[in-house]
Design brief:
The protein is mainly alpha-helical. Helices cover 75% and strands 1% of the residues. The protein is built from 21 helices and two strands. It has a two-stranded antiparallel sheet with strand order 1-2. A hairpin with a 2-residue loop joins strand 1 (459-462) and strand 2. Helix 5 (113-147) packs antiparallel against helix 11 and helix 15 runs antiparallel to helix 17. The longest helix has 35 residues, at 113-147.
Length: 555
């Protein structure tokens, strides 16, 4: 039996903890505000203009039988797809966060697993509601204002509640078993990093290539008359001119009760198995780490001193043990999905995309090991700084580590994108050479910037994984230190100062305020200054990083 007060206490605790975590992170709040303003803002504005007119048309009762059938199928198909999406989100939340309860020893000794599961699932329903109910009520109210009745608001609310009440328990039941396999079942747990990487590659690849749209369209069409679409008739109740099926609504209610009961039973069994199981041992391959480190050190023994080799091997070994530390390096790749589908449809890689990919590799080379040389040492910082290791040796070791990893990648990526793109053979050669040289130079550039703006505390990389990452200021300054010289080089290569000067004059003439004119010569001189400064910056940055290490003072 479920003890409701205890489950309710678990729910309140989980909701309060999650809300505090989000409210206490300025980065999350800024990202949410940016998404709400730039992504959801235009959609909301357009919806509030169009939806009232749809409500007026529905209230007139001029829908034909065919149009009414089409509208009902649209609602049921959309309901089925939305339910599947909510299940997927609930599964991902369970795998990454929800199934990993805080203070499990205290919680599981205080109450039964069933009470805990019900409380955790109810907390997830409440958190999902905080995201879905406000926009749902807003759009439903807009439709209701046009239709002249409040019934759409009630119907939309009932639909969201019914979907969440079934999707979240199902998602938790599936997610807790998936998490158990990934963390406690050794044959699968040892490959969980590869499985996670494969999942995200497939997921984002489907988005980039448009495959996800095709899947959604197929599901939308084939699930309209399925039980997954039955709850959509709750929404049909609130749309004037449409006739909902009362037996279907009854079937949806009964089916929801059955699904919730079965999902909670499966989730409780999975939680009991997972929460009381020992984590899998996935570090068996560490026995091979010493020989591989010795081989790497042997390869570097030719012209590199022993202290530098030690720093290099240690940096690579730590990253191999905890690759989550480099998760931030992949963030810029998310920006490629905007034009990935066009590239797939065209069958060729535009020249500017080839240059951007090569520029990203150059950027990543410096971000791997040298963008936080002091903070990466963690608790060992006092011992390392006060040891006989000099700043020159410490920084060089990290630069060598970055070059060892990134130079082969730079060679392969730049050569591949150059061949696939319309670039000529000579320009492909120049792209390869520039990318390889950049992969060697940018670690030195990043070392000084990371030393000037270090971060010593860990941050949440995922919902339950922490790592020491470079500071946001270091990210910004380092990115600008690469982008500005790159833009200056492009301006000079394309002989674009006159075009830019003309564009500035045209915009200034149309804009209010005093007219602004910049000569092409001034743009040329500025571009050369930025380019030369960018070429000298790695050497200056390296010297600063060395001095910063040697003269580091503890506060």
């Amino acid at each position: 039996m479920v003890h409701a007060p205890i489950s309710l206490a678990v729910t309140r605790t989980e909701v309060r903890r999650t809300v505090r975590a989000v409210a206490g992170s300025r980065t999350k709040l800024l990202m949410m505000a940016a998404v709400a303003l730039f992504a959801l803002g235009p959609v909301t504005a357009v919806g509030l203009l169009v939806i009232p007119e749809l409500g007026e048309q529905a209230a007139t009762g001029t829908l034909s039988a065919a149009d009414a059938t089409t509208a009902t199928e649209f609602v049921t198909g959309g309901t089925a797809v939305l339910w599947l999406f909510l299940v997927l989100m609930a599964v991902m939340r369970a795998v990454t966060t929800v199934a990993d309860v805080d203070e499990p020893a205290f919680l599981l000794l205080s109450t039964s697993v069933r009470n805990t599961v019900v409380g955790v699932v109810a907390a997830e329903v409440a958190l999902f509601s905080l995201w879905l109910l406000p926009p749902t009520l807003l759009f439903a109210a807009a439709f209701a204002s046009g239709a002249g009745t409040a019934l759409p608001v009630v119907a939309a609310s009932l639909l969201i509640v019914s979907l969440l009440a079934t999707a979240v328990p199902v998602g938790f039941g599936v997610g807790v078993w998936v998490r158990h396999l990934l963390t406690a079942y050794e044959p699968i747990a040892r490959y969980r990093t590869l499985l996670f990487a494969a999942f995200w590659i497939v997921y984002f690849g489907a988005i980039a290539t448009g495959g996800l749209n095709d899947v959604m369209a197929t599901l939308f069409t084939h699930l309209q008359a399925s039980p997954l679409g039955w709850p959509g008739h709750l929404l049909v109740l609130g749309i004037p001119g449409l006739e909902p099926s009362v037996p279907v609504i009854g079937g949806a209610v009964v089916g929801s009760v059955v699904v919730v009961g079965v999902a909670l039973a499966v989730g409780t069994r999975g939680a009991q198995t997972h929460w009381f199981a020992d984590p899998a041992r996935t570090d068996d391959d560490e026995t091979d780490e010493e020989p591989s480190s010795d081989r790497l050190e042997g390869l570097l023994s030719g012209g590199i001193s022993r202290p530098v080799r030690t720093v290099t091997v240690t940096a690579i070994r730590r990253t191999k043990r905890s690759p989550i530390r480099l998760a931030y390096v992949g963030y810029p790749l998310l920006g490629t999905f905007g034009f990935a589908q066009q590239v797939v449809e065209a069958g060729t890689l535009p020249s500017f995309v080839a240059v951007l990919f090569s520029l990203y590799v150059v950027w990543a080379a410096g971000a791997l090991f040298t963008l936080n040389p002091l903070g990466d040492l963690g608790p060992a910082l006092p011992a390392v700084v006060t040891s006989t290791l000099t700043g020159r040796q410490a920084i060089r070791g990290r630069i060598v580590a970055g070059a060892l990893v990134s130079v082969p990648i730079a060679l392969l990526v730049s050569l591949a994108v150059g061949i696939v793109s319309p670039l000529s053979l000579e320009r492909t050669g120049a792209l390869v050479a520039g990318t390889v040289v950049g992969a060697v130079v940018t670690p030195a550039l990043a070392s000084g910037i990371g030393s000037a703006f270090p971060r010593f505390g860990s941050v949440n990389v995922t919902n339950n994984r922490e790592a020491v990452m470079p500071s946001k200021t270091a990210f910004l300054v380092y990115t600008l230190a690469i982008m500005l010289p790159a833009v200056a080089a492009v301006v000079l290569y394309l002989e674009a100062p006159e075009t830019i000067a003309g564009l500035i004059a045209t915009v200034s003439a149309w804009a209010p305020g005093p007219e602004l004119t910049v000569s092409a010569r001034s743009i040329t001189v500025g571009a050369w200054l930025v380019l030369v400064g960018g070429l000298l910056a790695p050497f200056v940055s390296y010297r600063y990083a060395v001095e910063r290490f040697d003269w580091y003072a503890f506060e």
